[in-house]
Amino acid sequence: MKKQIYLKDTKIAERYDTHRITIWRWVKEGNFPAPVRLSPGCTRWLLNEIEDWEKDKMISRGKIE
After folding, report:
1. What is the side-by-side order of every strand in the sheet holding 36-39?
2. Which residue ranges in the chain fall short of pLDDT 70?
3. d(Cα 16, Cα 9) in Å, to the nearest integer?
4. How far from 65 is each of 3, 32, 56, 59, CA to CA, in Å?
5. Residue 39 contacts residue 48 (beta carbons within 8 Å)
6. Hey, which of 8, 26, 32, 51 has its CA 20 to 30 A from 57?
């Protein structure tokens, strides 16, 4: 089984050169994968879901097949 990698909102914001609040807004608007709540006060995103989302965006823009 492949190891799951979890990312904080700060790491995702860094990945897209934006503010962490923007990531949460994207989630609220339905434009970004929802995070996983690991425990109270600990919310993370699965890297593989982020990578799948990126791939879908590239496909929809005709950048890859």
Report:
1. 6-7, 42-46, 36-39
2. 1, 63-65
3. 11
4. 26, 21, 10, 6
5. no
6. 8
